[in-house]
Amino acid sequence: MLGMGIELTALHWIYVVFIVLIIGFMVKRRDTTLISILGIFLIAIAATGDLTASVSGVFKSFVYATSELLSTILIICIIVAMSKVLQKTGINEVMVAPFTKIIKTPALAYWTIGILMMVISWFFWPSPAVALLGAVMLPVAIRAGLPALGVAMAMNLFGHGIALSGDFIIQGAPKLTADAAGIPVSDVVFASVPLVITMGLVTTIVAFILLRRDIKRGSLEMVGTFDGKTEIEEPELGLLSKGQKQFFAILIPIAFALNVVAMAVFKLSGGDATAIVGGTAIIILLLLSMFAHKNTGLEKTTSYLIEGFQFGFKVFGPVIPIAAFFYLGDSGYLSIIGDLPNGSQGIVNDLGIALAGVVPLTKEIAVVTLTTVGAITGLDGSGFSGITLAGSIANLFGTAIDAGTATLTAMGQIAAIWVGGGTLVPWALIPAAAICNVSPFELARKNLIPVVVGLVVTSIVAMFLI
């Protein structure tokens, strides 16, 4: 047995119980707000023993979750506002016309959007890729017969799943795990290639099979209806001439293409890349509002922004309480409650270490443990916060069985990022859900079976590679 010296307390067990409850409520399609708030309160009361501090802790957790998610909220609001003016002026229809001639079937839409998302995400990470790709390709996919939920799944699985879990170009993820495991980054990247390919193929194929079944059954809304609308708004006639629409339909893709060039030249990624996309979207919104609405352009600009912000906060409203609960498991604990218990590395990390400390040392158990530890640490919704723990445990297991440290490290990295990087945890996959106007909770449910099947198959492959 591998002893890690971690003592689990009431805090840890309350957290585990409420994770199970939240997952159960989501599976049953029930709202998780009440159960999340109750979990926050009980953790706070167990940690402090102070009723006043615990009540305050609920509010503090909401403030913390909102501040952590704010940049994502803003980019979604702005992109939605820009999309509104594109729809209202009819520019959107002109922009997507060339793609509609090529993408004729749901299958072609799913795989084309997925592969484009994966390639863009390799270079700039998924969040800006969603913003760049989603607004343009969503109408094309819907006209080809792929429901909005299917578009969101494709962007999630290929971008936040395949591209982010391998991170072959930017190498942020393998650098973190490799440093923690004490091995070269190149070893982790090399070991992750067959695992990322396996995970990617299994997950996306299973997802497509299930999606095609749902399309045949007619059980999916073609247009996203999370904001209560059942159809795409028709453009307002007379705002722009045909020539003006064509001009802007060319100008806007060029503007975003220049964003891509700027990302490459100035090595922008993650938040910086998202910021330049958001700034460009604001400028486009202002330009089109003033050009199309002329004398009422000032008021219309504000109106479009209000629509964007209303939608953004409607999407995030149900997510903030559950995000607040899960943030307590890691980075949020210090800000919301205070000092951690003596010897604790954070609730989530403690659980991962404790799990690793009570399993027998065989290569099969080592793989299962690293997959489980990675998945547990991914529950905080970042995907990255727990991968250093996965690297550390992979080093311990690899040393103990005298083999497979790089493969174990890669497996923990893949599990953490697929769960927490944006395919299963609802607030992590909000960018794709919001762009496609679908419920993040419904998207998480649709991703669940493909991702779990993928993790099982990939874990089996990892056992043979050690």
Describe this structure in words.
The chain crosses the membrane at residues 6-27, 34-56, 62-86, 107-125, 131-150, 157-176, 188-211, 247-267, 273-292, 304-328, 415-436, 448-465. This protein is mainly alpha-helical. It has a domain at 70-170 and 191-316. The chain has 20 helices and no strands. Helix 5 runs antiparallel to helix 6. The longest helix has 39 residues, at 51-89. The chain starts with 9 loop residues before the first helix and ends with a helix. The mean pLDDT is 84.
Work out the helix count. 20
**Terminal Cα span:** 20 Å
Number of strands: 0
Question: How is the main sheet built?
Answer: none
Global structural class: mainly alpha
Strand content: under 5%
Helix content: over 70%
Radius of gyration, Cα only, in angstroms?
23 Å
Unreliable segments of 5+ consecutive residues:
none
Basic shape: globular
Average residue-wise pLDDT: 84
Order of helices and strands: HHHHHHHHHHHHHHHHHHHH
Topology:
Elements (H helix, E strand, L loop, with lengths): L9 H18 L5 H16 L2 H39 L1 H12 L3 H19 L1 H18 L4 H19 L5 H10 L3 H33 L24 H24 L4 H24 L3 H20 L2 H9 L4 H5 L10 H10 L6 H15 L9 H15 L3 H19 L6 H6 L4 H26 L1
